[in-house]
User: Which sequence fits this backbone?
């Protein structure tokens, strides 16, 4: 079920778990607001990870924590440090893409 959510003056479509359902609605202000909701203070390293995740999504590459750890952007330990609570779910939510199949 798709619901509407108001963020930084924009209305976005989200599913019942809060993941955006239309990536074209995403922008950095929305990403920042989603990060704040998830208690993440974005740094340039966070944005590097978000950009990597979005690029993989646009190229239809399935995401997993292991894949991100092997990306050369961050290692797994740093990924968990940047996004401590459910790193892949949190990062993909901030990136404005659907929840990866590998997430429970």
Assistant:
């Amino acid at each position: 079920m798709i619901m509407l959510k108001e963020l930084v003056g924009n209305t976005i479509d989200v599913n019942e778990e809060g993941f955006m359902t239309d990536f074209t609605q995403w922008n950095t202000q929305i990403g920042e607001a989603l990060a704040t909701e998830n208690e993440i203070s974005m740094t340039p390293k966070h944005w590097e990870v978000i950009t990597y995740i979005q690029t993989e999504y646009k190229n239809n590459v399935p995401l997993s924590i292991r894949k991100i750890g092997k990306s050369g952007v961050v290692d797994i330990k740093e990924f968990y440090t940047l996004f401590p609570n459910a790193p892949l779910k949190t990062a993909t939510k901030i990136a404005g893409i659907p929840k990866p199949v590998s997430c429970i």
User: Anything to note?
Assistant: Residues 3-95 form one domain. The chain is about 45% helix and 10% strand. The mean pLDDT is 93. The helical segments are 28-37, 44-58, 65-69, 76-82, 87-95.
